[in-house]
Amino acid sequence: MPTRILGISAYYHDSAACLLVDGEIIAAAQEERFTRKKHDAGFPCRAVEYCLREGGITIDDIDLVGFYEKPLVKFDRLLETYIACTPQGLRSYLMALPLWLTEKLWMSDAIASALNYKGALRFGDHHESHAASAFYPSPFEAAAIVTMDGVGEWATSSVGVGHGHEMTILREQKFPHSLGLLYSAFTYFAGFRVNSGEYKLMGLAPYGEPTYVSLIKDHLLEIRPDGSLWMNMDYFEYPHGLTMTGERFERLFRGPARQAEAALTQREMDLARSIQEITEEVVLKTACFAHRETALRNLCLAGGVALNCVANGRLVREGPFDEIWIQPAAGDAGGAVGIAFSLWHRYLKQPRTSAESTGAWRPQASTLAGETAPYADAMKGSFLGPSFSNDEIRTWLDGRGYHARCFTRSDLTDAVAAYLAEGKVIGLMQGRMEFGPRALGGRSIIGDARSPTMQSVMNLKIKFRESFRPFAPAILRDRLGDYFELDRDSPYMLLVAGIAASHRLEMPATARALWGIDKLNVPRSDIPAVTHVDYSARIQTVRQETNPLFHDIIKSFFRRTGCPVIVNTSFNVRGEPIVCSLDDAYRCFMRTDLDVLVLEQYVLLKTDQAAIAESDEWRREFVLD
Fold first, then answer.
1. pLDDT value for 369
2. To which H or E segment does residue 235 belong?
């Protein structure tokens, strides 16, 4: 009988579930996609239901359930922190204690009750779950492992090593000294939401200058040669308070934290750039330490900081490792994958399965030397969520009376490419939903990267989000070197690299003096919709092996236009998770300025649909972030 393991992460943010059968990921999904509550932290009941349904089993067929961290150890950290901070932490302590006493300390009973599960339950360590999610699905036989996030139980980062099915943590950084929490403190101070707006801070950084780097190093922290941190906690409130920063932090940076939705100023841009440079320095020094300690050629990354694709790009260009693999669900959602793999390989001591025996796709020799990549990338392109057949879509369309045209597979790619070339913006829902924060062509909004207006149109009329935020290019893998300064796969949109010199445009002298976000409207390349103000882009390389329809759409667009690059952003609007159901997709299509909706082989045009009769309440809901 196969061994079925259910991995769960929950109760902090981005709850998720993962089903592993004999070491193969069958399904994985975040709870937010089903509840429509962004970053939902609740127990992932719906995600579990989906995973079981995808696997064709019931909870009685599960052999092991794993939870991604150890609640009792985390409670120990909370108690020790509150005692050390007394009396400052009293209010925060009184707010947190009831939830721990009623739910979190009784996690075993809560999980068993929520799942109606009577079998074995195991708890993993938070950073070991991150490390397992990074190493075991990677294509490497042996690799150094670096994890960085806010905090788990006590650890805030770790350096480890993996060989075959074995994995060991070599060093941990302890709370409250944390690169993830440092970055979140600046996210909060810049007026963005913690655990949600960090990527906004990263996108804002190129508009600023690193004017605060010296001030940060002089007052807030010490970066040691091995990448570990010492932070001056006199400036931070998060160990004991209800905010990330306080009055002393405000005095240091000459003013209070920016209020949400207030106009951005040069201060926020310079703060973003400064903390980004600090982050990159820590990441590079930690990677160099991991390389010295392990003497290995390959590196695996996970934890929320691993979603900082600008730092990842520098690590590729300047770091000591030959190859890097990053878990696409690097945040807490990926902990569900990590604990499942950890139980399979470490607890049950099962060997990893080679690419040859599974027949799965793996990086080719031109990208990764054969001797360093004996395994498939076990994440399957991160397409691990639900999908809909054409028959299901037809029944859904007929039941609601929506007008759509069904194309053959070959005609569909040409039709979508033609719409893109005409400047249409398209919602694309095909194949399985992505696991992790990035849309990779399964639940994407796509557009023409050559359009000088596409970036502002998508931000303001479709995504309802801040105008400064860049969009990512999706490019055919075999054309990557023609457009970008990158020499390797980036299938999960987790590497930033520069636009190739041959595609850059000379900046007019008048544009060089522009302030901040005014720089956005000056085209910097012949693919301006995906070129950030510093000539960079967050790249997704697309192969037919992992996403055939998306690949063929871009290929058809290339044949039609001579450009192998399109815009790819997540199919959602600000404040909402990525669409999951057909109803989610249609609602987003009709409530925005999307022109076309593609549901597998069915194409819906906005002009053919009846208007939705409702108030403007939905628009107010969308802008709440």
1. 36
2. none
Q: Name the CATH topology of 1-68+70-123+332-352.
A: Nucleotidyltransferase; domain 5 (3.30.420)
34/580 Cα distance (integer angstroms): 7
Asked if 563 contacts 450 with a C-beta cutoff of 8 angstroms, the reply is: yes
Strands (DSSP E) found in 336-412: 405-406
User: Are the CB atoms for 20 and 340 separated by under 8 Å?
Assistant: yes
617 has a pLDDT exceeding 70: no
What is the number of other CB atoms lying within 10 angstroms of the CB of residue 328? Answer: 28
Question: What are 205-223's pLDDT values in tens digits?
Answer: 999 999 999 999 999 999 9
Query: Is the pTM for the entire model greater than 0.90?
Result: yes
Residue 149 has, within 13 A of its CA and on its CB side, a CA count of: 26
Categorize the per-residue pLDDT at 497 as very low, low, confident or very high, splitting at 50, 70 and 90.
very high
Count how many residues are written for the chain.
Answer: 625
Output the average pLDDT for the chain.
91
DSSP 15-70: -EEEEEETTEEEEEEETHHHH--TT--S--HHHHHHHHHHHT--GGG-SEEEESS-
- Look up tokens 């998306």; give the residue: 550
The DSSP call for residue 1 is -
Cα dihedral sign for 286, 488, 275, 465? Answer: negative
**Residue 607 CB contacts under 8 Å (≥ 6 apart), including other chains:** none
What's the farthest any 2 CA atoms get from each other in the chain?
70
Arch. (CATH architecture) of 390-623 = Alpha-Beta Complex (3.90)
Residues of the chain with CATH 3.30.420.40: 1-68+70-123+332-352, 138-330
CA distance 214 to 295: 33
Three-state DSSP at 326 gives strand
> Which residues, 6 or more positions from 292, have their beta carbon under 8 angstroms from its beta carbon?
none
